[in-house]
Design goal:
This protein is globular. It contains 8 helices and 4 strands. With about 180 residues, it is α/β, with parallel strands linked by helices. The structure holds 2'-deoxycytidine-5'-monophosphate. 2'-deoxycytidine-5'-monophosphate binds next to helix 2, helix 4 and helix 8.
């Protein structure tokens, strides 16, 4: 790390464990840049969905990852169930991970802040293993499914709690593998 490199805080953890909330609050408090890396995977998935392609379309996912534009990361559709499910599927494609690895590694340097906070499941292990500050946030799957269910209902999705719980377990199995 050079003298002027931003300090990296890595916040890893399971889906809907509160890592995003922690990351956002810390970033605001410290005036650090913030990147929710799940949004990158969701962005790629949503691009495929909007092209009418299944989210396991390898070549299209790789192309979408390479063409990733960080600007539209505030699209509310990115937080929906479909994008989340798709993100987990495209996250299993090694070339997509490699492309998004570069994107994430390149995020802190030009951010213009004293530090950068990145949250996601592999930030402290794969993306920034050298980060001087690391958190791992987790909670029981039922406790994580409840707020996620509420959030989806508030966004206007019609989805049962049991579906959210099952989805979360399935994604956890795929993400860990
Ligand atoms: O944290 P999230 O729910 O927004 O993540 C959505 C999916 O994206 C998650 O199920 C797996 C994938 N993902 C990933 O593989 N690596 C990351 N650093 C962040 C997300």
């Amino acid at each position: 790390m050079t003298e002027h490199s931003p300090v990296i805080i890595a916040i890893d953890g399971t889906a809907a464990s509160g890592k995003g909330t922690l990351a956002k609050r810390l970033a605001k408090y410290l005036d650090y840049a913030y990147l929710d890396t799940g949004l990158l995977y969701r962005r790629v998935a949503l691009t495929l969905i909007r092209q009418g392609l299944p989210t396991d379309s390898r070549e299209a996912a790789i192309a979408a990852a390479r063409a990733l534009d960080p600007a539209p990361l505030d699209d509310p559709k990115l937080r929906g169930t479909e994008a989340g499910r798709g993100a987990s599927v495209i996250g299993a494609i090694p070339e997509v991970r490699k492309t998004l690895y570069d994107f994430q590694r390149n995020f802190p340097a030009p951010c213009g802040k004293a530090g950068a906070i990145l949250d996601g499941r592999d930030i402290g292990t794969v993306i920034f293993p050298e980060a001087p500050i690391k958190f791992y946030v987790d909670a029981d799957v039922a406790a994580r499914a409840q707020p996620r269910h509420k959030e989806l209902l508030a966004k206007g999705e019609t989805i049962a709690y049991e579906t959210v719980l099952a989805d979360m377990k399935e994604r956890h199995a795929r993400d860990s593998a």
